[in-house]
Amino acid sequence: MTKKIYIINGSPRKNWNTSKLCESFAQGVVDVGGCAEIINLYDVDFKGCRACSACKLKNGKNYGFCSYPDELKEILKKVSLADGICFATPIYFGDVSGVMKMFIERLVYPFVRFDKQYTPIPPKKLKTAAMYTMNVDENTFLNQYIGKNNSAPIGFFENWITHIYEKPRRICAFNTFQYHDYSKYDDKRWDIEDKIKQHEEVFPKDLENAYNAGKNFI
Question: Which of 22, 104, 113, 184 has its CA 20 to 30 A from that of 125?
Answer without folding.
Answer: 22
